[in-house]
Structure formats: structure tokens, C-alpha cells
């Protein structure tokens, strides 16, 4: 799942993910609110719980941090046991520190998402 | 005693005479014996007498001799006694004289001491008198000098007196002249009243200006008015004063203007200074945000180019591919520029000094540049390095930039050799990075530290012209300086200093 207000970025990142493995299903949402809505009503369009969420920080309306807080408070049945990874243009060390302090997101990556980054993430978080 | 003797008395006395005669017969007999004895004795005595008579004779002779001797002695005695008496007298006289002399001697001794003391006193006094004399002689001399001066001064005063008398006579004449002039001035005064009106008119004009110049002018206008009144009475002086007034007003007006101008300029400068500070901060913020936000569309363009190439590679002809390649490399350059700009604007955001071992720091840089160093076969020497307070990431960037440059601008066919050195000078550390590369023309020593200034084309040497400007900004943030020395023959040395910074 991609949560980013930048549709272009969603397009490229989705392309990278799909190219990496055509079996991956990508869901892209441009606002945090839409993403939460999706998580709460997943059944209606027959989609799956996301395993991996890429989350931007600077978004209009609900920003990445606010999404994280709301996501953390979701009822357990809606909460997918997804790995959340911050994916942002921010190189501000404070943001990195903040993400670590909140301890909801597993990782902090700088845009753009590349094939290599994705492979590394998959290797690190999805290899049993 | 009574001579009447009675018969009884004569009887008794007869008895007694008979008794007595008997006793006298016994006694006669005894006496007769004794007489005989005495006659014997007398015979003996006669012999003894004769003996004695002889002895007497002898003695008398001796006596006579003794008498003579005695007389002689007596005479001598007498003479001696006389002499003795005389000597005693003489002795007594001498004793007396002695006593007198001793007394006198004692008195003289006392007198002597007294005289000696008086002598000393007199000598002292004499010495004092000599000094006093000298002093008096000096004072005398001084007084004579002073007298001579006074005499001169007296003459001078006498001369001045005469001069003053002359001057007094002249003043009397001048006074008369002034009296005449006064009369003339009174005549002139009436003329000045007209002139005054003219001045009053001018005053009105000035009052208009005074309205602009507020209080100061009103005060001056009032003074003017007052001065005009007096001017009528004091004629010439008034013209002078009017003139002076005008001058002063002009000057005052000029000063007020100049003052306002200065105040204005000052304010402007202060405004400008605060504006500059704000503008500087804004600019920093701006360049940070700009370069940050510029990245995003650039990335989008770059991404779409990639997608375009991937999806349509089969339908594009050679020209189209060439164009795409040019676009891509332009995007790459721009992306690099924007990234560098972002790095540059981000400098100075870090405010935390860290105590860093520069040796370790350089080791990390050399490790990062390992591939480059190996590929270029660069020899690197690092001397003793200090530990000091720096902005760690930034200083690492400085070393990285300088070492990268030293390798990048190496001479062909020469093994690159880089020497990194540090030394303590007073309170600061001076670092140097020396190479044996192509060197820099001294003309460009300043320019190379400016942002986006490059001496070579991208084809010759890759780069974006921001490395050294970053270094300069970083060193300045450490309150140090950075400069370069270079010689095309021997290579280039970059120097920078870092003072003792406290956290």
C-alpha cells in the first residue's frame, strides 16, 4: 500500500513494486484518510490486507504522523499486521528520530523507491 | 698657845725628862754602836768616795768634753732648729702655695673645658655664619638682579604710561569721531526702519519655512523680530547681525536638513541591516526549501523519462534515443546541482560541536574514498592530528572535498601524492592538504571558493562547482579561514584554520 499525496510518486513506486514481482498487488491512496477508510472497509472491493505500507510524511490534511497515530488506534480486526515504512523526501534527522521514537514504523527511507531498496526491504522483513 | 705652865705640869715634865734621859742613855749607847758602825761604814765610804771621786773626775773630764760636744751640738741644733724653723715656715709656705696651685689648677681645668666647649660652639657658629654669609651674599646678588629687573620694568611701565597717555589722547579724538558717527547712525536708523520692513517681509517668508522646520524656526523668527527692533537703534551692528542671523539660519536650516538626512540615513541603514539579517535568513530558508522542492518535479521528470524509455524503446528511432540521452544527462546534472544547493543551504543548520579526533575522521573519509584512491593509485600521508571541537559532519565534508579534488585534479603520468598535515599556531590549528596535481592559476585563488565557479568543463573534469564553496562556508562557520597556495610545477596546498571552539 502506498500512502502519498503525489500521484506521480505513487505511479512510479507502484511500477517498481509490480515490476519487482507481478504477483504483488499495489493499492495507492493519496490521503491518510482514504488509506484509513480503505483499511476499515477492505472487504467491499475484495482487496487484501496490505503486508507493507509505504507512508509519506508531508501530506495535506492528515500527514504521515497523524496517520500513524490513527493507524495505531485502529481496532485489531482492521489493523493488518503490516510493516510500515516511512518513504519521504525529508532528510531532516529530526523526522528520522521522531519516527524511531513513535516505534510504529519499521524503517525510514528516502524517495525515490528503487528496485534495490525494495529487494532489501523484502529480504529484511519478509524472509522467514 | 699658853705659856703658863703649872707645878704639876713641871713635875710631870721632870719625870718625863728623866724617863726620857734613861731612854736617851740606851739610845746613846745604841747610837755609840751605830756610830762605830757608821765610822766603819764611813771608812768604807771614804774609800768608795775616793773611787767615786776618781770616777767623778773622769766623769767631769768626760762631762767637760760632752759639754763642749753638747755645746757644739747645741749650736748645731740651734742652727738646725733655726733652719728647721725656717724650713717649716718655708714648707708651710710651699704647702700653702701648692694648695693654692691645685685649687687654681682645678679651676683652670674647669675653665679649660669651658673654653674648649666655647671654642667648639664658636667654630660651629662660625661655620653657620659662613653659610649664612654665603646665603646673604646670594640673596644680595638676587636682590640686585631683581632691582635691576625692577628698574627695567619701571622704565617699561613709565614708557607704557606715556603710551597710554598718548592713547587716551587718541581715544578722546576717536570718541569725538564716534559721537559724530552716532549722529550719522541715527540718520541711518530711519533709513533702516524701511530696510527693517523689508526684513519683516523676509521674515514672513522665513516664517513659512519655519512652519516646516517647526519649533527651531519659530524661536529664530522671534529672535529675528527682536533683533530687528534692536537693529533700528543700533544701525550698523544690526545689519551685521541681520546678516549673521541669515547665515545662521541658513546654516541651521542646512544642519537641520543634514541632521534629518543623517537620521534618515541611519534609520535606513539600521532598517537595511535588520532587513539584510532577515533577508539572509529568508534566503537560507528559501534556498533550502527551493532546492528541496525542486527535487521533486525533477525526480518526476526523470522517472517519466525512464518509464518512457522502457515502454517505448522499440518505437523510437536513433535520433529520438539521442535526444532522450541528452535530456537524461541534463536532468542528471540538474539533479546534482539541486542536491549540492541543498547541501550548501543546509550548512549552518547544525549547531552542535563535537569533540572529534581528526585522525579518526580522516580515516573514515579515506575509507569512503577507498575505490577512488585505489583506482588512481594515490599515495596519502597523514601526519599527527589533533582532537578538537568541530561540526563533525561538516569537517568530514571539508576533508572529503579537498582529498577528492586533490585526486581529481592529478597530473597525468604522475602518481598522485597527498600530504595532510596539522600544526598548532597560537590558539588555533592550521590544517593543510597538499597535492602534486595540476595546480591552480593564482588569478583564480579567490574565485574557486565562490559557489558554482568552475575552472574546467564537465568533459575535462566532472563537478558542480560547489565543493570549495561548501568548504569555505564550513570553515567560516568554525570561525576559521581557508585559502590556497599553488604552483603548476609543484601542485596545490589548501590551508584552513580552526580555532579553539567551546561547546
Which secondary structure elements does this structure contain, and how are they paired or packed?
The complex is a heterodimer of chains A (128) and B (503).
Chain A: E1 2-3, H1 7-20, E2 28-29, H2 32-40, E3 52-55, H3 64-73, E4 83-88, H4 93-102, E5 107-110, H5 115-125
Parallel strand pairs in A: 1-2, 1-3, 3-4, 4-5
Chain B: H1 7-312, H2 318-346, E1 354-357, H3 358-368, H4 370-376, E2 379-382, E3 387-390, H5 392-408, E4 417-425, E5 428-434, H6 467-477, E6 482-487, E7 491-499
Parallel strand pairs in B: 2-4
Antiparallel strand pairs in B: 1-3, 4-5, 5-7, 6-7
CATH third-tier fold name of the domain at 351-499 in chain B: Heat Shock Protein 90
Alpha-beta classification of chain A? alpha/beta
**CATH homologous superfamily caption of chain A:** Response regulator
Percentage beta strand of chain B: 5-15%
Number of strands of chain B: 7
Largest sheet of chain B: 5 strands, mixed
Radius of gyration of chain A: 14 Å
Summarize model confidence as the mean pLDDT of chain A.
Answer: 85
Give the radius of gyration of chain B: 78 Å
Distance between the first and last residues' Cα of chain B: 174 Å
The CATH top-level class label of the domain at 351-499 in chain B: Alpha Beta
**Helical run tally of chain B:** 6
CATH classification, class level of chain A: Alpha Beta
Task: Provide the helix percentage of chain A.
Answer: 40-55%
Q: Which sheet architecture does the biggest sheet of chain A show? A: 5 strands, parallel
Number of alpha- plus pi-helical segments of chain A: 5
Relative strand content of chain A: 5-15%
- Main-sheet strand order of chain B equals 2-4-5-7-6
Order of helices and strands of chain B: HHEHHEEHEEHEE
Amino acid at each position: 500500500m502506498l500512502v502519498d499525496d503525489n500521484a506521480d510518486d505513487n505511479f512510479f513506486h507502484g511500477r517498481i513494486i509490480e515490476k519487482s514481482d507481478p504477483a504483488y498487488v499495489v493499492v495507492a491512496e493519496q490521503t491518510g484518510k482514504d488509506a484509513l477508510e480503505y483499511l476499515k472497509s477492505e472487504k467491499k472491493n475484495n482487496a487484501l490486507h496490505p503486508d507493507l505500507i509505504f507512508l509519506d510524511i508531508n501530506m495535506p490534511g492528515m500527514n504521515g504522523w497523524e496517520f500513524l497515530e490513527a493507524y495505531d488506534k485502529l481496532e485489531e480486526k482492521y489493523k493488518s499486521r503490516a510493516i510500515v515504512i516511512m518513504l519521504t523526501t525529508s532528510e531532516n534527522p529530526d523526522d528520522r528520530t521522531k519516527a524511531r521514537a513513535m516505534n510504529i514504523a519499521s524503517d525510514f527511507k528516502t524517495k525515490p523507491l528503487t528496485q534495490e531498496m525494495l529487494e532489501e526491504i523484502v529480504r529484511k522483513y519478509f524472509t522467514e | 698657845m699658853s705659856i703658863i705652865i703649872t707645878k704639876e705640869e713641871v713635875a710631870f715634865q721632870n719625870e718625863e725628862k728623866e724617863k726620857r734621859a734613861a731612854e736617851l742613855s740606851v739610845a746613846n749607847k745604841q747610837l755609840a754602836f751605830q756610830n762605830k758602825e757608821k765610822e766603819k761604814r764611813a771608812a768604807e765610804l771614804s774609800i768608795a768616795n775616793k773611787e767615786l771621786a776618781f770616777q767623778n773626775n773622769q766623769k767631769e773630764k768626760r762631762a767637760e768634753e760632752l759639754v763642749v760636744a753638747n755645746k757644739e751640738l747645741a749650736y748645731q741644733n740651734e742652727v738646725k732648729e733655726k733652719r728647721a724653723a725656717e724650713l717649716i715656715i718655708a714648707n708651710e709656705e710651699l704647702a700653702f702655695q701648692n694648695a693654692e696651685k691645685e685649687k687654681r689648677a682645678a679651676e683652670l681645668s674647669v675653665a679649660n673645658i669651658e673654653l674648649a666647649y666655647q671654642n667648639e660652639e664658636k667654630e660651629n657658629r662660625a661655620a653657620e655664619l659662613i653659610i649664612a654669609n654665603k646665603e646673604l651674599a646670594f640673596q644680595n646678588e638676587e636682590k640686585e638682579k631683581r632691582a635691576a629687573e625692577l628698574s627695567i620694568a619701571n622704565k617699561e611701565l613709565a614708557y607704557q604710561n606715556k603710551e597710554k597717555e598718548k592713547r587716551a589722547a587718541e581715544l578722546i579724538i576717536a570718541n569725538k569721531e564716534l559721537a559724530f558717527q552716532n549722529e550719522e547712525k541715527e540718520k541711518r536708523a530711519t533709513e533702516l526702519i524701511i530696510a527693517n520692513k523689508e526684513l519683516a517681509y523676509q521674515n514672513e517668508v522665513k516664517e513659512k519655512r519655519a512652519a516646516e522646520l517647526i519649533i527651531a524656526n519659530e524661536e529664530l523668527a522671534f529672535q529675528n523680530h527682536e533683533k530687528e527692533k534692536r537693529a533700528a537703534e543700533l544701525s550698523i551692528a544690526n545689519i551685521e547681525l541681520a546678516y549673521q542671523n541669515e547665515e545662521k539660519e541658513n546654516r541651521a536650516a542646512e544642519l537641520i536638513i543634514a541632521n534629518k538626512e543623517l537620521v534618515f540615513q541611519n534609520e535606513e541603514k539600521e532598517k537595511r541591516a535588520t532587513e539584510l539579517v532577515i533577508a539572509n535568513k529568508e534566503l537560507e530558508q528559501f534556498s533550502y526549501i527551493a532546492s528541496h522542492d525542486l527535487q521533486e518535479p525533477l525526480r518526476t521528470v526523470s522517472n517519466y523519462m525512464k518509464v518512457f524509455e522502457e515502454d517505448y524503446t522499440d518505437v523510437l528511432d536513433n535520433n529520438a534515443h539521442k535526444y532522450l540521452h541528452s535530456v537524461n544527462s541534463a536532468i542528471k546534472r540538474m539533479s546534482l546541482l539541486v542536491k549540492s544547493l541543498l547541501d550548501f543551504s543546509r550548512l549552518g543548520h547544525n549547531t552542535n560541536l563535537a569533540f572529534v579526533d581528526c585522525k579518526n575522521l580522516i580515516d573514515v573519509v579515506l575509507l569512503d574514498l577507498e575505490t577512488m584512491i585505489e583506482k588512481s593509485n594515490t599515495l596519502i600521508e597523514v601526519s599527527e592530528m589533533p582532537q578538537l571541537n568541530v561540526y563533525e559532519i561538516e569537517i568530514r565534508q571539508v576533508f572529503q572535498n579537498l582529498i577528492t579534488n586533490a585526486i581529481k585534479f592529478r597530473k597525468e603520468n604522475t602518481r598522485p601524492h597527498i600530504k595532510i598535515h596539522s600544526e598548532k599556531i597560537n590558539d588555533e590549528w592550521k590544517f593543510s592538504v597538499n597535492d602534486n596535481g595540476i595546480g591552480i592559476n593564482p588569478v583564480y585563488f579567490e574565485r574557486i571558493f565562490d559557489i558554482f565557479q568552475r575552472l574546467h568543463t564537465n568533459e575535462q573534469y566532472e563537478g558542480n562547482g560547489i565543493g570549495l564553496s561548501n568548504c569555505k562556508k564550513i570553515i567560516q562557520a568554525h570561525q576559521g579561514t581557508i585559502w590556497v597556495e599553488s604552483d603548476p610545477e609543484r601542485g596545490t596546498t589548501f590551508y584552513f584554520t580552526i580555532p579553539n571552539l567551546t561547546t
